[in-house]
Amino acid sequence: MENTHRLRATEDTRTNRIVERLLADRHSVALSIALHLVPGALIVAVYALIGAPFTRAIGYPIFLAWAIALAVVLFPLQFGLLWLGRRRNGHYSLRGVLRYLDKPFSRGKVTAIGIGLLVYMTVVSLALIPLDNLVFDTFFTWIPYEGAGGSATTYLDNYSQKFLVITLLICLPFTGFTLPLIEEYYFRGFLLPRLPQLGRWAPLFNTVLFSVYHFWAPWTILSKIVFLFPGVWFVWSRHDIRASIWMHPGSALLATTVGVIAIALGVV
């Protein structure tokens, strides 16, 4: 019995140290790099081991496999943030875990800024598709992922309208909003504020690593840096995460919704 108590005490001490390190005001650069990139590696692993085999077995677009992989990794990640809140606050909460939640701007002002960032991200990401194609054709044709290509729609190519609409409708609540929202909470609300030692380089550091985190589409790293950085910089400089929520989950929701409608109407 005494040994059991000692073991539990040791485990509690280790857990407390991990919690303290994660909730510290400052993450080391090495820790931050790991926290940025490990989720991306896990997503690729889940895709290869679970998502892709399952999706191929049921004959659906491979895009569904990536949606499954993202969900399997990001939902537990969100729970992990809530668990950290429970360790700090005594109940499941994001207070004290996430930063930039204080809403320094009025709802109207942040909405206007958010819409501007959403439009910027949407327009610039579309304008940079030729760059993505060039980078893919030059450096990444060896990538083994099914449907890999410079365009974001290659994961949906060569499937019937019915399968495309069903797939996108299934994915809409997840890849169209919830999963990008979790990414914003984690990357912008949790990781970005804990890099004070980088000063003005923190938003660029965060943007670059978030772009690299997308291991399943490395040919889009450059374009992601370009269209994500303004939103990340705004969140960092103005301490209001709502702007990047408008930009990232907002643009994902817009793109997915428009895509579903366009495919259903036979426009594309």
UniProtKB/TrEMBL annotation:
<keyword id="KW-0378">Hydrolase</keyword>
<feature type="transmembrane region" description="Helical">
    <location>
        <begin position="29"/>
        <end position="50"/>
    </location>
</feature>
<feature type="transmembrane region" description="Helical">
    <location>
        <begin position="110"/>
        <end position="131"/>
    </location>
</feature>
<protein>
    <submittedName>
        <fullName>CPBP family intramembrane metalloprotease</fullName>
    </submittedName>
</protein>
<dbReference type="Pfam" id="PF02517">
    <property type="entry name" value="Rce1-like"/>
</dbReference>
<dbReference type="GO" id="GO:0080120">
    <property type="term" value="P:CAAX-box protein maturation"/>
</dbReference>
<feature type="domain" description="CAAX prenyl protease 2/Lysostaphin resistance protein A-like">
    <location>
        <begin position="168"/>
        <end position="248"/>
    </location>
</feature>
<keyword id="KW-0482">Metalloprotease</keyword>
<dbReference type="InterPro" id="IPR003675">
    <property type="entry name" value="Rce1/LyrA-like_dom"/>
</dbReference>
<feature type="transmembrane region" description="Helical">
    <location>
        <begin position="203"/>
        <end position="233"/>
    </location>
</feature>
<dbReference type="GO" id="GO:0008237">
    <property type="term" value="F:metallopeptidase activity"/>
</dbReference>
<feature type="transmembrane region" description="Helical">
    <location>
        <begin position="163"/>
        <end position="182"/>
    </location>
</feature>
<feature type="transmembrane region" description="Helical">
    <location>
        <begin position="62"/>
        <end position="85"/>
    </location>
</feature>
<keyword id="KW-0472">Membrane</keyword>
<dbReference type="GO" id="GO:0004175">
    <property type="term" value="F:endopeptidase activity"/>
</dbReference>
<feature type="transmembrane region" description="Helical">
    <location>
        <begin position="245"/>
        <end position="267"/>
    </location>
</feature>
<keyword id="KW-0812">Transmembrane</keyword>
<keyword id="KW-1133">Transmembrane helix</keyword>
<keyword id="KW-0645">Protease</keyword>
